[in-house]
Write a structure and sequence with these properties.
- The complex is a heterotetramer, with two copies of chain A (365 residues) and two copies of chain B (334 residues).
- Helices cover 44% and strands 8% of the residues of chain A.
- Chain A has 365 residues and is of the alpha/beta class.
- In chain A, strand 4 and strand 5 form a beta hairpin.
- Chain B is of the alpha/beta class and 334 residues long.
- In chain B, helix 7 links the parallel strand 6 and strand 7.
- The chains are: A alpha/beta (365), B alpha/beta (334).
- Chains in contact: A-B, A-C, A-D, B-C, B-D, C-D.
- Chains A and B meet through helix 6, helix 7 and helix 12 of A and helix 3, helix 4 and helix 5 of B.
- One magnesium ion (MG) binds next to strand 4 of chain C.
Chain lengths: 365, 334, 365, 334
């Protein structure tokens, strides 16, 4: 597999910040829109850096870094319409941002104060899914719901290169094509599934998987926000028009560790990472904006300041997040009254109450 | 194959389920039936017979042959506000969907802090006694009952089948609905107009035969077997109280304990393997709740710790009237 | 989907018994070899007819008919070498025949006297797998074992059109291609998965699925024993040579019911079946043999006689099959002593013994 | 991350497992390790650290990311005469493989009339207490114990880990090997030369602390907790006998019943939900086998009927020293 994505890679902005043309995909954006994308990219990266720091400080149990995948996520996220629905993995902080999910909401999950975090229906952004691939089928089912409702919404579902090996993802390909569901399969190929390189999941480029199921697949430069936006928009439009699913492979690179628990020095060489640093998704936009006069020094400084403020607030808010009440363990296990849950809830409540009289919380400690 | 019944009032369980599904489809436009061969064929047991014809391919959907895909797409439909009713063709084919059931269907409501209910019904024709090949006669209910977030229930007769399938569909919780396939052709009088009221809340067990000397707890296919055993026991001068559990998760321990406190003895009967079957939980609870009332240990009669055997020997695997009575003998021998 | 298999269908013998050429596949067979194939086809069909009758007579609980798929199975089965290993579904009676599994062994499963039936290692033919798709992964794992052993054996795994929707089958495609396992995926597309037509499983021809995973797919006329033999042989040779997996789609038709429990009149029209009758897999070979003088009247009669004798013996042997002992329920649950099984075995033994004194077997009856 | 231990005699459980796997790879060329990230990375818990380097990519195989695929190919390798040892990365990720485990791994030996054994070990790091996100702290052992054809076992300490993993691999039965991930870094002296003998047969439970007033049965991660509880109880004048079950299927009821017959009381402790957890089966059996000895009902202390909660509240979900002692109090209050 070529590290540069091969000849079929859709690219509109080179790593050097050069705007290039593509026969099938193009995009016209105002300076303002371009600046907005840049701002997204920077803020999203800043949130990611801050969350990583918070994990190091013990405020989060874990963090799954998006470093390097900002363009893929901002591009895809900005292609999605408000009434569309997005199914993320656990790393979609950039898309979450574009859906209006406050970064603090994301941190709740990683801090361990909830298994969810936000209202999926408010943002049309599903909860993070940790079991690899499960959400692909949810997306298709949701798309079948759209078909039944007769609206022209579409669904975007995210997964990684590793996930393409899961049965559920391939079943999602089958179901989406058979039902012609309005779904865009958005695969961020960041070249790694934890320590396993792409070669452990496939021997051909992933975008070609789609052809085996009878729908189009496109490989796009995942570090090129313009190309991702253009390609994803086109795929969503196609879904909306009743042409069924598309697989978009965003060819990118996981610049950080898999998560803060991971140690990538055990399985990959620094040189590879260095090579991909040259393709940074933010730098090329900055160069493009500056070189073409779409943004000036002040703008870049403003974004930096905003990013810093966002980080400070995130840090403070994160630290202030309260732990859940013990008894909340039983909340929402069922939507209805349930005698088993009630009896266990009462048991725990009584048990906890038995300590409240005594000075110490337990006998053993 | 099931007989539709010529009189309105006599239903096979198959027909009762069909009528219940029909009512649900009529009452709520969000109800969608999904499964393999449930459309034109009407399902291999004909439970969905005629429904695709009457409600269309969008509401009664023949799905690609993949159980995880069926349940997984049901989750997505539920997120979009639908109420999917999934048919698993046979008990032994639910396992490919196990991840979606355990990690998504069961947990999503809690994960979403109650924002996204999962009103999904997973219908599973279960149990043996029909002379089938491997994987077509299993009783996997304990896997689901052990899984928090799922309700598990099983009707034993046409009336309950008609009522409980509608209650299950109306329930905002996910329900694993275990249908005793070998009782599909059992008949009973059902008055659709009063059935829901007559059946009562689905969480309640029902004393289907009162008695004095011992309680027999059972569900699904074993209820008829236990009633027959109770009738035979009567000839021997033994009065058995038979409790149809109906709900397997949660268990209606209140009703059962009240019975055991009167009789002092309990035999639990199911087709599933005894080891970690529902009987284990029931025995553990009743042994604790009725500690001073039990005059004998709880006796469990059920399947063995072995793969479901070839059909020519299944009668020895399945509890029958004699094995139930043997269990009663043991309970009474203390 | 075209009923005739489309332009890419590999065919060497037309339904009219005409030998045609194909640029990529050819085969040279002696008259003797051709006669042997014919004999296989006839005997296999006769066994199937007899088993169906035995089911009707109550001797079998169920039978999964192969009617119409004889050429696909005999062609594939005869392509396999003795040391190769075959993983069947529940309908592979024709392949079983080519592996030397006595038809009676197959009937044991459907009669309900065993969940298995033969020694997989004696015949290099795995037990029937009833859970759709599971065996696809077993085949890949077996192939990985071959790779580790360093032999040049290959694996053939059977599944149906319906099975291609299962996650496990698609995972098998992933694993086989990633590990370059010596596996031939032999898909008998008989157009139906019980009552569901092919369109419920795919919107493009199934052989094209392989391309999505990076290995070749071929569609062959599944009613043409020569073409199936040639294509499968080539695919096995390719696997043996280290080129990894191939998907062979044998385009055929399920002429009978799904099983004896099924009623196809509920979901398909007789005209379709009639159309496929014209493509009968046996008739065309007979015409070819006769027209070219490869076989004479006597030969055809001999085969009929042999088939009849086989059927008579099968019927008698089937009826004579003893039921298993009740206590055999506990046999082989584990390979080692197991206290739980022992205690339950003792329990059942004692229970059964408690009846042996009394005249009647139970109280209730 | 695990410390390899500098002295040969001191092993963390992680290191003990690593050493046991190494021995198995050395002893039998048919042993193949399969899993996600088990090669270069050595697994997310480093249990296979260094093994790919020493035994090669054919024996320690990084598999595509699909659990059903991993277990399914293990079945095929077993059919070809190999002894696959599968690592499931975390408890909550075993469910995609459930069908292969339940319908193939567990049943194939019986199906083949004993001709094709399935000597497959499925290693699952399980349980909570490590502050992880959802799906990383579950205790799914009851699903497997309910499944005939599988052995289920769980070591609680480095010695057993070293011995039992080798015994599991040598065993011709499929073994679901539940590794208490939060005890991976617990240390103990292990003498590899005598460990197998010292550990004894894997089917036997072990009295890890003798006592008089009540028996506490536990396994895996809860053994340390229960031993700590027993030490605390001693200060209160209560003598607890702690039994490490080690084998969850089959259960060594003989050893446990002997203990309960002496103490008259039993508390069963596990992290898994109580409802249909191992404690249910143990309570059912002991209530029957020790019917005349039990002075109190069997008390079960375990997880709740709820999805495993977010980590900031998991300490209230998991049985701890206090909850064990509370269970003992209840047992002694009768
Ligand atoms: C079913 C399942 N198996 C294993 C895991 C553990 N796991 C978490 S992330 C991951 C790698 C995922 O790789 P990829 O799909 O490429 O996504 P990425 O993390 O690179 O974004 C693994 C194996 C899991 N979460 N779910
Ligand atoms: C996992 C699973 N789900 C459902 C079934 C029930 N079933 C048996 S055969 C069959 C259809 C199979 O179709 P196909 O793969 O095309 O094979 P064919 O029977 O046509 O040869 C179904 C749904 C099963 N055996 N296994
Ligand atoms: Mg990745
Ligand atoms: Mg078919």
């Amino acid at each position: 597999m070529t590290a540069d994505g091969g000849p079929n890679l859709v690219q509109l902005l080179t790593p050097e910040g050069e705007r290039v043309q593509h026969p099938d995909y193009d995009i016209e954006l105002s300076a303002e829109e371009l600046r907005a994308l840049y701002r997204d990219l920077v803020l999203v990266r800043r949130v990611d850096v801050e969350a990583t720091a918070l994990q190091r400080q013990g405020e989060l149990g874990l963090w799954a870094q998006l470093l390097g995948q900002e363009a893929a996520q901002v591009g895809a996220g900005r292609a999605v319409q408000p009434d569309d629905f997005v199914f993320p993995t656990y790393r979609e902080h950039g898309i979450a941002w574009t859906r209006g999910v406050a970064p603090l909401q994301l941190l709740k999950l990683f801090r361990g104060v909830t298994n969810g975090g936000w209202d999926p229906h408010e943002h049309n952004f599903a909860l993070y899914t940790i079991v690899i691939g499960d959400q692909a089928l949810h997306a298709v089912g949701y798309g079948m719901g759209i078909q039944r409702d007769g609206t022209d919404d579409a669904v975007l579902v995210c997964f990684g290169d590793g996930a393409t090996s899961q049965g559920d993802v391939n079943e999602a390909f089958v179901f989406a094509s058979v039902f012609n569901a309005p779904v865009v399969f958005f695969c961020q190929n960041n070249q790694w599934a934890i320590s396993e390189p792409l070669e452990r999941q496939t021997r051909i480029p992933l975008y070609r998987r789609a052809a085996g199921f009878g729908f189009p697949g496109v490989r796009v430069d995942g570090n090129d926000v313009l190309a991702v936006l253009a390609v994803t928009r086109a795929a969503l439009a196609s879904a909306r028009e009743g042409n069924g699913p598309t697989l978009v492979e965003a060819f990118t690179y996981r610049m950080g560790a898999h998560t803060t628990s991971d140690d990538p020095t055990r399985y990959r060489i620094a040189a590879d990472v260095e090579q991909w640093k040259l393709k940074d998704p933010i730098e090329r936009v900055k160069v493009y904006l500056a070189r073409n006069g779409f943004a000036d020094h002040t703008f870049f400084e403003e974004v930096e300041t905003e990013a810093e403020a966002l980080a400070v607030k995130l840090r403070d808010d994160c630290r202030a997040l309260p732990d859940p009440e013990p008894i909340s363990i039983f909340d929402n296990v069922y939507a209805t009254q349930n005698s088993l849950v009630e009896s266990e809830r009462t048991g725990l409540r009584d048990y906890l109450a038995s300590f409240s009289d005594t000075a110490h919380a337990g006998r053993g400690h | 194959m099931p007989d539709g019944g010529t009189e309105m009032a006599v239903f096979t369980m198959a027909k009762a389920l069909n009528a219940g599904l029909r009512r649900a489809l009529e009452d709520d436009p969000k109800v969608v039936l999904m499964g393999e061969d449930i459309g034109r064929l009407g399902g291999v047991f004909r439970i969905t017979d005629g429904l695709q014809k009457d409600f269309g391919e969008h509401r009664v959907v023949d799905m690609p042959l993949a159980e995880s895909g069926i349940v997984g797409t049901a989750v997505g439909l539920a997120m979009r506000g639908y109420r999917p009713v999934v048919e698993i063709q046979f008990d032994g084919f639910v396992y490919p969907a196990f991840d979606q059931i355990v990690s998504q269907v069961a947990k999503h409501h809690a994960r979403s802090s109650g924002r996204t209910p999962m009103p999904i019904v997973i219908r599973i024709p279960f149990g043996g006694g029909i002379g089938a090949v491997e994987h077509h006669s299993e009783s996997p209910e304990a896997y689901f009952a052990h899984t928090a977030g799922l309700r598990v229930m099983s009707p034993s007769n046409p009336l309950d089948a008609y009522a409980m399938i509608q209650q299950a569909i109306a329930c905002p919780d996910p329900v694993v609905f275990m249908e005793p396939k070998r009782r599909y052709w059992d008949k009973a009088e059902v008055d659709p107009a009063t059935a829901l009221e007559a059946a009562g809340p689905f969480e309640r067990a029902r004393v289907v035969r009162p008695g004095e000397h011992a309680t027999v707890a059972c569900y699904g296919p074993m209820v008829r077997t236990c009633l027959e055993a109770a009738a035979a026991a009567e000839d021997e001068g033994r009065s058995l109280e038979v409790v149809d559990l109906r709900s397997l998760s949660p268990l209606d321990i209140t009703t059962l304990a009240a019975s055991v406190q009167r009789t002092g003895r309990l035999v639990v009967v199911h087709e599933a393997p005894v080891f970690l079957g529902l009987g284990a939980e029931i025995a553990a609870r009743i042994s604790a709740e009725c500690f001073y009332h039990l005059q004998a240990p709880v006796i469990r009669v059920g399947g063995y710790h072995a793969p479901y055997p070839p059909s020519r020997v299944e009668e020895h695997y399945l509890p029958d009237l004699d094995r139930v009575l043997d269990g009663v003998d043991r309970a009474l021998s203390y």
